[in-house]
Amino acid sequence: MAVPATPADTLNQQRVRQSRSSATFQTIPILYGESVAQGGIFAIGKTSPTRWVFGILWGYGPLTYLRNVRLDDELPIGDFSVTNYLGSMTQEVDPTLARAIINPQYSDNLRGYAYSVVAFDQSDYGSVPNFTAEVGGITGTSNPAVAYRDFVENDVYGLGGEVDSSAQEIAENFNAEYLDQNEIRHQVGLVVNTPLDAESWLDILAEYAGCWSNHQGGKYSLKPNWITPITRNLTANDLIRGGLVAEYLNLSQVPTTVEVQFSELKEGKIESRVAVYRTQSVLRGEENERISRITMPGIIRYSEAYRYARTRQQLLNNREWKLIGLDSLLDITRGDRITYTDDSHALDLHVAGVPTRSATGLVELDCYEYRASDYSSEVVSTPTFSSGKLVYE
Description:
The chain is mainly beta and 393 residues long. The chain folds into four domains: 13-138, no CATH class; 144-224, no CATH class; 232-249 and 318-374; 257-317 and 375-390, no CATH class. The protein is built from six helices and 24 strands. The longest helix is centred in the last third of the chain and has 15 residues, at 302-316. The protein starts with 12 loop residues before the first strand and ends with a strand. Residues 1-24 and 384-393 have low confidence and may be disordered.
């Protein structure tokens, strides 16, 4: 391995030394929670004329576990051997790679990187196979709020930044809450390997944690998108004249069904599944389906995907509002619950965006109507059927 990542504004693409080839650029995955990882070949050699040896990189470590390496999605056949390294800072050079690659002599200990060394006879495989493995990601990060903190704080592949400790504790506890049937509220199994900008990855991790991501005062913080107390009461005195703008819903265009694609771990493989939530009007045949399709590959349980679909469907029916005022609105941020009252309105609102300043210097807040009933802690243990339509498809 050549140059490690440095904290940056993007998920870095990094230079990975490949034996017997020139240096190439490759994104090194960050593994959170339980998942199936796709391995990347970083070294190839032979210990005999017919026995191949491959170095397979999985991602940053240290991992919780690494097991059941598969070739072309199947368990190995023939005379196969594998040695796994979780990515500790004490791991040494693998002796099999050192024997197989001698010109130049192999000397990478890959400390901090999870990898496997696999060897098999070339007669068992007609071509170079694809490699996958079951992984338990960086320690403790099945909790998506913990994964968020890791991405913020890590100074190798993350931002090297700081989280708001009090807000972080609230978010981690929120994710770890037990619901009915002793199910944890949020779990994640995610391979972070697409070179998006870092703020986009923070928003993605926050979404899996059921939270908003904010950056204030040099610190990053999560705020649960959930039933929450009111943090600010506004009146007409806080807005400019005409500073309350309603976005009227065209109900004929609002989705009536939400489909959430999630990942089911089964026998060492990832199988794509869909959890579906339909409004009662659709189930009664009173309204046509208008489908919103959402991909959440880091969700690994049907029950959580169904809760996500139900909550998203409920929120789709909430009217949006824009509040326009002066600098006193700047201390309100995404995820806050506020009220607005004047002679004609009594609004309960969730703030959906960070305050922005318009070209005229005014401060704008994007909000939507808040209802505690929108949020679900329901645990659906088995797929349900209604009006002849699958809810789990």
